Q: What sequence folds into this?
């Protein structure tokens, strides 16, 4: 996230080039970074068979490293992609609609639609769901796990670019912003259910609406705090996510005809 | 004779795959029950369900008449249940004797308060536990390896250590998951002897096994499972002679 | 001389922080980003109680321990009910959230910090006495962690880290052990907080930010997890570094990020090339010889 934002910042404010160039530059740097992280970092750790804790510490340290680098290069005061955060506003009835809103909502909707279509209708998308469900079984079916992990990281990188472009043109960003936004993403993922394709998006929408609507009830300084309360709430009451009706993907019917394999012995009571 | 362990109408499925189908089972003190069937029949799953590692969709498990619903795995073990694993699951960072010492029924070293303020109590417990552990290892012919690392032992001895560990906790009911798999020679003989002695001391034993000779020699009766359901019960001799079961076992 | 005392005390406090964090992450196998926040809770509790409520300093420091202890249990209990991974995530939220709280609430002095914290011992006995106090506490903490790791509890922790399912199968309760470990470790961070507050007499939320999490983690990982002396070596080394950097006379806006880069960079390098740290831990846990001797009798 940090890399994405500051790339755009450099292109627009530093080099004074138009926004679409900035977006392409963002994609270039962020996807390269995602690729490097997956191939150099995660793959090496996976090969060593390290514990989850190790991976977590690793990702945390990498994020912090990038944040400090950004702080060193760009300073610790808030920045936005364009010199101003303000966009022309037109009144539609009683609602103030800014010139930012429609392209933002439009591009988000388009990206999500493309993503859902990808997951549902393409082979790679289905493979991703398979690998997430049961990586070893997927490998037995001949799915290339390495490629899938890479694709996952790249798609995630692309989303990060879109997200940070929208965020950075509307709100201020500090080097630490990546970390708090990530927390939001994690809370949404947990509430939406890890592994459920639509879950995180819906949860994020609900959380964001609640967080912003809360301004009507609590002073603005507390909005950040509210998020952390939600995260806690999410973990305590919904560790496996809110129950959405489970869709039968193509894989579960295929395995039903196989002899019953031993269920995961590690699942907790 | 009252049932030490009772399984009533236990059912469980994962995503459409049925691993347990209305399973009824009873284990009595001093008797060894053999659980046989082809791979994937649901035998290990049944153990997982009894232990509370997996929550059933329906049915219940009772230990000494008291339902175990909602109890976690370790609570059930404290209540008198004990099990071994198909792949031993010994603690690699602990020497053999410490693998046993950690398995005592009460382990005062588990409470930080005891460690800080109750060292006398720890010492007393440690002496008793060590004597017991040495005794068990001696019975299995493993007295010499007490201070060795688990990884230094041949597989057969590792499995014996696993059983010894399961016996440290004064269990009423012992579930053995394929104790003979990969075991031969002296360890095999020792394992046979141990299981017999454990049963004679009053423990209710259930063994999942593919080794029919072992089942034949040791088990008082058998239960044949297939696709999560119990297909037949009876003496081991009857089960192994039944042509339909044999076909299920080998023909699948 | 006063400058030297300040350094000795800071290093000592970081040894306490690193050693207590080693208990949590090294021996307990729990990942948490929230150690600085318990340091903060101890500091603020002690400071507020002694300045605004006129509680005697020693009692206030003790209260600091308890507040940190109880807060850590409030974090760990619901999280560990689910799993250790959730504790990781919850700890991030806790660290960021509680600091937000401190920054926005009036009685903590807000973002400007809490000033005029009552001194302790210095007026009566001089600065040397405080240095001795800190060193005594450092020695006690190191001894405590060493004692715990060698005891039957250490055996249990080792088994728990090896295989939690097998651990449950021998009748041991992993969840409550983890909660106890987390509570004790965090409480000790609170003690360090109290000691910090009454010497430097001024605390701000910035001193307890995520940079501290990286610093403490670096000390433990680079020094060597699961050893008695690893965190000490780590703390000494990693306090020497910022001192060395400060000699370069860099502006504060650059100093912070450079320190951060150094800490995180070091951890990453060590994670890839020497994950066991400078003081490697033994792979096997062994009981003290006295225990074995008991059998012979």
A:
């Amino acid at each position: 996230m940090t890399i994405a934002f500051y790339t755009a910042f450099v292109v627009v404010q530093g080099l004074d080039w138009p926004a679409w160039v900035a977006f392409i530059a963002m994609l270039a740097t962020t996807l390269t970074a995602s690729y490097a992280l997956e191939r150099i970092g995660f793959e090496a750790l996976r090969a060593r068979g390290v514990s989850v804790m190790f991976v977590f510490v690793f990702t945390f340290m990498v994020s912090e490293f990038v944040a400090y680098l950004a702080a060193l290069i760009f300073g610790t005061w808030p920045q936005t992609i364009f010199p101003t955060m303000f966009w022309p506003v037109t009144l539609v009835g009683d609602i103030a609609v800014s010139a930012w809103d429609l392209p933002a909502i439009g591009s988000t909707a388009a990206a999500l639609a493309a993503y859902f279509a990808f997951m549902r209708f393409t082979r790679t998308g289905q493979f991703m769901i398979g690998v997430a469900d049961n990586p070893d079984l997927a490998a037995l079916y001949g799915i290339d796990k390495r490629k899938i992990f890479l694709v996952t990281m790249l798609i995630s990188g692309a989303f990060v670019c879109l997200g940070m472009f929208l965020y950075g043109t509307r709100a201020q960003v500090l080097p630490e912003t990546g970390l708090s936004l990530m927390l939001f993403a994690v809370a949404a993922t947990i509430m939406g259910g890890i592994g459920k394709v639509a879950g995180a998006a819906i949860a994020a929408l609900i959380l964001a609406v609640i967080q912003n609507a809360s301004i009507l009830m609590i002073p603005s300084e507390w909005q950040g705090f509210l998020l952390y309360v939600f995260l806690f709430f999410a973990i305590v009451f919904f560790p496996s996510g809110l129950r959405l009706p489970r869709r039968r993907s193509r894989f579960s019917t295929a395995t039903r005809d196989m002899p019953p394999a031993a269920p995961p012995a590690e699942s907790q009571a | 004779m009252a049932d030490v362990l009772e399984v009533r109408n236990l059912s469980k499925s994962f995503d459409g795959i049925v691993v347990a189908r209305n399973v009824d089972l009873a284990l009595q003190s001093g008797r060894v029950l053999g659980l046989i069937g082809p791979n994937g029949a649901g035998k290990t799953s049944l153990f997982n369900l009894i232990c509370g590692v997996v929550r059933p969709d329906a049915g219940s498990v009772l230990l000494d008449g008291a339902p175990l619903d909602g109890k976690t795995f370790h609570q059930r073990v404290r209540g008198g249940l004990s099990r071994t694993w198909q792949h031993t699951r010994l603690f690699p960072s602990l020497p053999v004797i410490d693998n046993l010492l950690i398995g005592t029924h009460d382990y005062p070293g588990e409470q930080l308060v005891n460690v800080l303020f109750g060292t006398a109590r720890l010492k007393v417990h440690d002496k008793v536990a060590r004597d017991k552990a040495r005794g068990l290892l001696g019975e299995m012919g493993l007295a010499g390896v007490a201070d060795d690392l688990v990884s230094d032992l041949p597989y057969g001895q590792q499995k014996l250590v696993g059983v010894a560990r399961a016996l440290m906790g004064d269990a009423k009911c012992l579930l053995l998951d394929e104790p003979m798999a990969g075991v031969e020679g002296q360890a095999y003989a020792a394992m046979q002897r141990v299981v017999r002695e454990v049963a004679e001391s009053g423990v209710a034993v259930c063994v999942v096994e593919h080794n029919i000779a072992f089942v034949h020699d040791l088990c008082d009766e058998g239960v044949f499972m297939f696709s999560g359901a119990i297909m037949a019960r009876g003496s081991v001799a009857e089960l192994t002679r039944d042509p339909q079961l044999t076909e299920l076992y080998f023909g699948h | 001389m006063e400058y030297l005392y300040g350094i000795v005390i800071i290093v000592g406090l970081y040894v306490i922080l690193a050693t207590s964090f080693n208990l949590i992450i090294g021996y307990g196998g729990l990942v948490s980003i929230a150690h600085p926040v318990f340091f903060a809770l101890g500091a603020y509790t002690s400071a507020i109680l002694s300045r605004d409520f006129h509680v005697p300093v020693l009692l206030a420091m003790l209260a600091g321990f308890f507040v940190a202890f109880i807060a850590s249990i409030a974090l760990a209990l619901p999280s560990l009910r689910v799993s250790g991974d959730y504790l990781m995530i919850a700890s991030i939220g806790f660290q960021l959230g509680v600091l937000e709280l401190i920054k926005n609430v009036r009685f903590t002095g807000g973002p400007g910090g809490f000033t005029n914290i009552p001194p302790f011992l210095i007026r009566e006995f001089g600065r040397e006495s405080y240095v001795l106090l800190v060193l005594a506490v450092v020695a006690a903490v190191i001894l405590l962690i060493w004692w715990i790791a060698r005891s039957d509890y250490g055996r249990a922790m080792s088994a728990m880290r090896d295989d939690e399912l097998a651990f449950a199968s021998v009748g041991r309760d992993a969840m409550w052990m983890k909660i106890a470990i987390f509570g004790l470790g965090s409480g000790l961070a609170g003690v360090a907080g109290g000691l910090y507050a009454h010497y430097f007499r001024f605390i701000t939320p910035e001193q307890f930010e995520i940079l501290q999490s990286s610093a403490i983690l670096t000390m433990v990982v680079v020094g060597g997890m699961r050893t008695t002396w690893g965190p000490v070596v780590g703390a000494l080394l990693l306090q020497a570094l910022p001192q060395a950097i400060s000699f370069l006379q860099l502006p504060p806006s650059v100093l912070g990020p450079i320190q951060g880069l150094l800490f995180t960079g070091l951890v990453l390098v060590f994670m890839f090339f020497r994950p066991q740290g400078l003081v490697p831990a033994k792979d096997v846990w062994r009981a003290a010889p006295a225990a074995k001797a008991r059998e012979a009798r």
Q: What stands out?
A: Chain B has ten helices and ten strands. The two ends of chain B are 37 Å apart (CA to CA). Chain B touches chain C through 43 residues (CB under 8 Å). Strands of chain B lie at 3-14, 17-28, 32-36, 58-63, 66-67, 81-83, 173-177, 204-208, 221-226, 229-234.
